[in-house]
Input
Amino acid sequence: MNPVSTPLKHFAPRALMLGTLALALGACGNSGGGNKATLVYQESADIPTLDPGVTYDTASGQVVENLYETLLDYKGSSLRDLEPKLATGWELSQGGKVVTFKLRDGVKFHTGNPMTCTDAEYSLRRNLVTNSSASGNWFISDALLGTQSNAKDDPSGVTWAKISAAVKCDDQGQLVLTMPRADPAILPKLAYIGQAIVDSKHAKDIGEWDGTEATWKTWVGKDLTGGALDKDPSGTGAYKLVKRDANSLAASAFDGYWGTKPALQNVLIQKVPEDAARQQALLKGDADVVETGGRAVIEQQLKGKPGVAVIDDLPNTSAFAIFMNEKISNPALLGSGKLDGKGVPATFFADADVRRAFNSSFDVAGYIRDVQLGKGKPRTMLLPDSFPGYDASIPTYTFDAAKATAAFKAAFGGQLWQNGFVLNADYRAGSVTSQTAMEILKKNVEALNPKFKINLTAKQWSAMIRDSQNGKEAMLLNGWAPDYADPDNFLYTFYSSKGYYQTASNFKNAQIDGWLDQGRAETDQAARAKLYAQVGQAAYDGAYYINVPAAAGIFAYRDALQGVSAEAYNPMRSFILGVYWKDISKK
Output
């Protein structure tokens, strides 16, 4: 699912923290974490958008999945079993190329508008029209239109006739999806929160696309991140937006919700960049759950403390890597832009020896030991090891100063080692794991040659996402959580020259592209696994990413929370607890 917001150690004045908290809770009319009707969550990340059509990161997703709903959803903690949500049932026909959804009656949006098939039709058509690099609509477009592109990039593949034929309501008020070919992953794809049903009347009233053929071309590829629905959302979810500013978001239970009424009346999400401040809020009961900054913080500072509960050894279904952009398009990061010891060229990481040198400079074992406290393991490829296609026999890079030195000396015909370089890179502000990983790399690279220099800067999550999509980050630690449970969702995303992360890494391997395309059409799982093993081996040979070890999942929360457990946890949910807000209560 998208870029994952991973967990500075500077203590914020408590008065400032509680002042911001009180401001946001004032909108809800309640006090903080100790109130039984209010859930308080503190995180370091900002929230890029509240528009489902462009929600493609976990910080946004954790809110959107509670304001909006999809046609169907994962059942309980299962990654495979699906159940009805806004649809009451569905039927596949014509060899799997047609899916017909019967929709739930009596559902209202937060505006009071009734949900009808028109809203479902509008929502999916809108995603096909606005499909952009900022969204996750590439995979629904691939299923419904046979192309990942929008009408600007593929004018013959994306036409109004094809969009309107692919998504339409029939005479019985059912939603009918017609695909050019059967897609065995179509149902899980529709469970992704980016395919949520929006209030079409409200959207049109506030200036969103009017849903007509006459205007659709003016909305093609439009980035909706800061658009009208981002500012004024209206979904069918159990919670509705009350207040949002740069530092907090407040939501309250929706009285008109069609399902079981939530026990918690209010939810507050507060941006608190300082790790120590978030920890103190959890320990004092001012927050119910916080972004903790990794296992070390939980094990050493939170576990066993009064009022704090910990759930450990959760499955890791994400993949993280340090990206090395082979075509850096941000001059501000390049210094001189030359191999003169004062900067780097834009194609710095296009040299495979540079990438191998950086891979051999990252202390995987040390990261597992110091950051993951021994509860992590190297990843041979950017795919969860629980997914089919993962090959544990592929080699992994380990910290080896001699190999790193040899690779640096070979890079750029020896010029790099002789002249040195200055590289400017960012890490996500407030993320101790991101900061630590980049600092490990910086320390080990700089120790090899006094002419090597890496400057690290903290940067806001939303800005990093935006810049990485435009190739403007030189290096960054980023990850991927699954949109749907299939290896293609990871491998195509990271390794295909047409994948989501292409603009952040800017590499192309024709063999890998071919294997990935074959894997999409291959129904024999053994043959498919063989193709993906070849992808993993080629990725190792090319050293395209620095694979970050996979850690066992762990989180801490106030023990007053009910409905939170390892059994209830579903990694397809964006919220840190792996459950919806509506399923949580407080004793």
